[in-house]
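Readers of this paper often ask what the protein records in our data store actually look like. Such a record has a labelled line for the sequence and another for the backbone structure tokens. Nothing more is needed to write down the fold, since each code stands for a local backbone conformation. The remainder of this section carries one protein's record, kept here as part of the documentation.
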Amino acid sequence: MRAVRVGAALLGAAAALVATSLPASAEATAVVTGDEDFGRNVVLEGYGSWRTSLIGLRLADGTDLRTYCVELDVDTRKGAPMTEAPWEAYPDASKAFKSQPDKVLWILSHSYPTVQLDELSKKVGVGLDKQEAIAGTQAAIWHYSNGVKFVEGRNERDVTALYKYLTGPENVGQKQQPPVSLELTPATAKGVAGERIGPFTVNTTAESVQVSVETKSGKAVQLVDANGKPVTEVKNGDKVFVLPSADSDAGSATIKATATSGATVEKGRLFVGSDPKARTQTLITAETTTTKPMAEVKAQWTAKPAPTTTPAPTTTAPPTTTPPTTTEVVPPATTSQPPSVSIDDKKNLANTGASVWGALGAAAVLLGAGVVALVLTRRRRRA
């Protein structure tokens, strides 16, 4: 049990690494529903009696399918997010499953629920019910995924018969088909309003993919192809662009892609927990189903810069010149006799000359002052 605990710890660390390395929106995604079809318990060497079941998984498009457990020491967590992963991503430190994945796929292709109970019973030579078929199939998977041994003498006869058939010489292995996938690259792209942003390249195993664009910018945004034509459906290898209107402010848009046909999740496909903080066991699909994988990417843009305008040169009009006007001065007519002035006219004449009476008065005052000053001077000398 100490070795088991150490192994479980290694499994947890490996699963966390795998979950963080999985590409976003590239493979099918799902959640564990918690629904189970229970089988018989099986006795395993070193583990004792162990419960078996088919576990429900719901893909992102709502499709339900059944899966088997491929990690014996890890519990299933209801609601756990799961991502489709290649067999190389199986988080098992023992590497047992990685060395023989084709054996597990052969089991899934030749046992329940792929093969109906009556047909499987004829092949094995016993009358199997659903619980026995689930138990024998799950025990055979654990034999290759975890390297555990089935204790024949302590298990039911029909379960043992099925187990021996699935792990016997008829199991020659089966190669896995490429997983269904849908991916847009790059995850983000930036540009300017009024210009194409991208390209975003479509990578998918589906026959066709529907694409759309959503934005909250309030302006028109189109999804166009390499020729600038609006596009709603693409195929593997196509390139699409986001084209925001030239009058848009800075904003962003989301391109959504959904596979419409030819997308199949084959039996034997692994689903690994994608939340490294909440460990859950890895599941393997027990049946084939069609699905519609989805992917999203974002485009961002800035507002188109205002055009830089060069001001028109200003010219100053030359001043309008008016030719100088010359005034001809006509001298007054002279007469030999001065004009006669009447007495009434003298009264009304303007005073155009300086009056001499003020000057004479001032001179008289000065003269008197001088005389006084002279008299006073003589008196002082006599005294």
In short: Confidence is low (pLDDT under 50) at residues 1-25, 334-356. Residues 357-382 form the longest helix (26 residues). The first strand starts at residue 29 and ends at 38. DSSP finds eight helices and 19 strands in the chain.
